[in-house]
Amino acid sequence: MTSPENLSIPTNLLPRDGRFGAGPSKVRAAQLDALLADAPHFLGTSHRQSTVKDKVGEVRDGLAALFNLPDGYEVLLGNGGSTAFWDIATFGLIEQHSQHLVFGEFSSKFATAVKAAPHLGDPEVISSEPGTHPQAIARDGIDLYALTHNETSTGVMMPILRPEGSTGLVCVDATSAAGGLIVDPTQFDVYYFAPQKSFASDGGLWIALCSPAAIARIEAIAASGRWTPEFFNLKTALDNSRLNQTYNTPALATIHLLASQISWFNENGGLSFSAGRSSRSAEVLYGWAEASDFATPFVQNSAERSHVIGTIDFTDEIDAALIAKILRANGVVDTEPYRKLGRNQLRIAMFPAIDSEDIAALCASINYIVGSL
Fold first, then answer.
1. Is the residue at 36 inside a domain?
2. Distance CA 154, CA 128 (A)
């Protein structure tokens, strides 16, 4: 008898592209073709020269257009990814006291970094159970509100709104949200993310969309004399970004792939196009789960179900880990749940590069696996 792990899914059921990872994510063939075409005069060149600086400028201008940034907003970038930006923000954005909404693994990490910073006061942490999100509360003395647009570990999204009556900066972790969810830039001061998710590039770079108030905060903290390692200095990042460069050498392929994805978004209608693709995929995935007799969306409130990261629970008699293993053996990869959540579920990315038709094929493949088992 063939073991379950060796189950073969019929080719006509399989997705055309089997990449559903939460990051690194699917890279479109057109991005790779564009990189290959430019490689002879782009890769292996100085990031201080116009060949690369023009591409960085294309990224900055493209993001300003994509997010329809108001006058005075600026696009900053630097090396290290979102993980580095949590430490960067403890040096360059928080004056003394911050408030953090925590509703999963990644939304907790910024609060943890702030707690460890000896030059800052203890942060206020407002938490909720995985599968939900809390609400920010305006308080006197809070100079930065740390929100998360999409919790990658649990598949919860939350609307980005300034806390009513607040005067502090609104700083949003948009790592898995940016490009795949709609956002109003007037509701944030810093919207930071990395390119390995909706932007279908590689990691190691952080991007921050900053309001005039955030720019003023960066410059004021820098002028205050607060000691900051140069790599974590937001004023250094600001000055270099205005020159279309990073403080230290970036991965050139990452920048090129990022620029290609931004152009694809903008040429097809901007954020409404890219977020619309994710929304269609979400309709397919959650519609399938709600109609299933063995699967259900983990996030109970439909308004909080992420359009870019879907988490689907399975009934006890169905082994989600075995389903993921069979999918992987058939070329459908990275559907495993977030390890620390510890649930019998699959986690499925629905970033704009992923076709909704492939989400439908994934659902059909899961149906076939369950029926065969």
1. no
2. 12
Q: Does 33 reside within a domain?
A: no
In a domain, 91, yes or no: yes
Buried b (16+ CB within 10 A) or exposed e, 98-128: bbbbbbbbbbbbbbebbeebeebeebbbbbb
CB 270 within 8 A of CB 185: no
Tally of domains within the chain: 2
Question: Which residues, including other chains, have CB under 8 Å from residue 118's CB and lie 6 or more apart?
Answer: none
- In angstroms, the CA 18 to CA 33 distance is 19
- Per the listing, tokens 């696009």 go with 75
For residue 320, what are the domain limits? Answer: 4-27+270-372
Distance between CA atoms of residues 116 and 199, nearest Å: 31
Single out the residue of 354, 257, 267 nearest to residue 308, CA to CA. Answer: 354
Q: Which two tokens stand for residue 137?
A: 């509360």
CB 171 within 8 A of CB 93: yes
Walk along the chain (373 residues) and give the pLDDT tens digit of each residue: 457 778 999 999 999 999 999 999 999 999 999 999 999 999 999 999 999 999 999 999 999 999 999 999 999 999 999 999 999 999 999 999 999 999 999 999 999 999 999 999 999 999 999 999 999 999 999 999 999 999 999 999 999 999 999 999 999 999 999 999 999 999 999 999 999 999 999 999 999 999 999 999 999 999 999 999 999 999 999 999 999 999 999 999 999 999 999 999 999 999 999 999 999 999 999 999 999 999 999 999 999 999 999 999 999 999 999 999 999 999 999 999 998 888 999 999 999 999 999 999 999 999 999 999 9
Q: Assess whether 226 and 333 both reside in one domain.
A: no
Q: pTM here?
A: 0.97
| Residue that terminates a domain, selected from 206, 239, 267 | 267
The set of residues, in sequence order, having a beta carbon less than 8 Å from that of 355 and lying 6+ positions away, is: 16, 17, 277, 281
Q: What CATH code is carried by the domain that includes residue 15?
A: 3.90.1150.10
